[in-house]
Amino acid sequence: xxxxxxxxxxxxxxxxxxxxxxxxxxRGYDSAGIAVFEGREIKTVKTRGKLSAMREKLERExxxxxxxxxxxxxxxxxxxxxDINSHPHSNGRVTIVHNGIIENYAELKEFLTEQGYxxxxxTDSEVVACLLDYYYAERNPLxxxxxxLKELRGSYALGMIxxxxxxxxxxxxxxxxLIVGMGSGEGFIASxxxxxxxxxxxxxxxxxxxxxxxxxxxxxxxxxxxxxVTKDVQTAEWDVEQAQKCGFPHYMLKEIHEQPDVVQKxxxxxxxxxxxxxxGIGLTDDMLRGFQRxxxxxxxxxxxxxxxxxxxxxxxARVPVAVEIASEFRYMDxxxxxxxxxxxxxxxxxxxxxxxxxxxxxxRGAKTLAVVNVKYSAIARLADICINTLAGLxxxxxxTKAYSxxxxxxxxxxxxxxxxxxxxxxxxxxxxxxxxxxxxxxxRSVIEHSDECQFAASQLINTETxxxxxxxxxxxLSLEGSxxxxxxxxxxxxxxxxxxxxxxxxxxxxxxxxxxxxxTQRHVLEKTISNMEEVKARxxxxxxxxxxxxxxxxxxxxxxxxxxxxxxxxxLVPLPTVxxxxxxxxxxxxxxxxxxxKPRNLAKSVTTE
Length: 609
Ligand code: G6P
Known about the structure:
Elements: E1 3-8, H1 13-23, E2 31-38, E3 41-48, H2 51-61, E4 68-74, E5 89-91, E6 94-102, H3 105-114, H4 126-134, H5 141-151, E7 154-162, E8 168-174, E9 179-182, E10 187-190, E11 202-205, E12 210-215, E13 218-222, E14 228-229, E15 234-235, H6 251-257, H7 259-270, E16 271-272, E17 275-276, H8 285-290, E18 293-298, H9 300-317, E19 321-325, H10 326-329, E20 340-346, H11 352-363, E21 367-372, H12 378-382, E22 385-388, H13 401-420, H14 426-437, H15 439-448, H16 450-458, E23 465-470, H17 473-489, E24 492-497, E25 514-519, H18 525-536, E26 541-547, E27 559-563, H19 574-591
Parallel strand pairs: 18-19, 18-20, 20-21, 21-22, 23-24, 23-25, 25-26, 26-27
Antiparallel strand pairs: 1-4, 1-10, 2-3, 2-4, 5-6, 6-7, 7-8, 8-12, 9-10, 9-11, 11-15, 12-13, 13-14, 16-17
Helix pairs in contact: 3-4, 4-5, 7-13, 7-15, 9-13, 9-17, 13-14, 15-19, 16-19, 17-19
The site of 6-O-phosphono-alpha-D-glucopyranose (G6P) has 17 residues, from helix 9.
């Protein structure tokens, strides 16, 4: 979704803004722009398209030269991607960039039109610039901002500059992320830390309804009434390297390769003396014993991690688990309340629907647990309990390493849940944990055989549609494998429980339609093989992902990817297996000439409904 940057300092503002926007590209966008003070004039350059188009335009029209400005990457919501609809928007004496949605923009627009304002764009954001100008009668920016914020409904992170103050950047937020970078003699605002990590690791998290002002005397914070507030300065744990490709052609490939390490880190943070220890995050065995029901709610890949967790928690802890898509959960009037555990899973910790689902669960009295990768995110801060997964910075839009650490954390939770409820013994708890400790090694071994995944991807080069099938954990994984492939290769794909295909979808199977079968679960292997035979008989081209040594009858499988899991429990094989699926998706994308890091239409962090 939209990315915001802002800068005040001695460096060349255009370079800092463009650099920052580049670091926010991962969020997904379709247009970009900057506004920089050149002396007392604000020069705005914006365009539809990628940052390369912006750079060309800057070359053509001249780069604004100055030390104070704001920038934006836009992911279109109101109005098509176009030069006019791109941010920054100026109206009167105010120029702004906005991330989020102004829900009452239509009524504000009507009011402002009556006041004589005219609008150039179709965006909801332009009304904010106008409204700020309307309240700027006293030439007091802080007053204009506090009055404007009172009128806005919806979510926003705003970067603002006022024509009369060429050495000030203001920002405010409600519901959308905004971070303030605290350099020495310089200040930054950004939607995420990587945008300024190159210059400073010190940052302040702006909370909802807070305002920040960068000026030559330093950085000041205010509440929604304009009263000064004191904020804690924190230090980012990430370093610049994490925000670079480090020799890999794409972030996605780099992130796939990071999985053994980040899984190990996440295990190290949650395992003590050979067993999962969740007391550090405030989750005791007593609490686990008390829950009658579990909900897992999330979006996209995080939701599919939730489905793996459902299989694991129900199998081991014998507690009913319902997985609900967050955008459904929040409006379905769920039967949830005291005695329930609601787990929200999110890489970014900012996904609007997941956040709303969490708020709903909290308001109904359920205990909430967030499994989140960004520890300073809104979801991490809102939940009662938080597992901070340690994937580090994930930049590629298609999530890979974040999924793996989510399921590692959720497996550990499942083990502890089962132990707390007296369903497994301490010995079994130790055995399962030791098994999970083997996964970094098995993940490494799958990644080392990436050429086989590349070959499998080459078999899909002319494919328009395909299916993933599997049973149990393999089904949960099929959902993620299929999503990954769709996201970045643009091949139409559907995932089905292998036993369900014949209840309708098998009508779509014809000669050479690929069916990627995940067949790692030994207790249902024969059943899965029967389902493979059913589609093979109808002409499918079968790619099978299976344990090393699995045999199939002659002619059943067209391409076999044997994965070496060693003695890993079947329940845990989704961890190494997903890496093979990620690699198939990655190579399919590259072989089709796509950019796997920035798939069309998608955003990494979806901060609108
Ligand atoms: C977007 C991304 C997906 C991601 C989903 C949930 O749709 O494109 O890759 O899985 O959001 O994101 P979250 O940050 O909550 O895990």
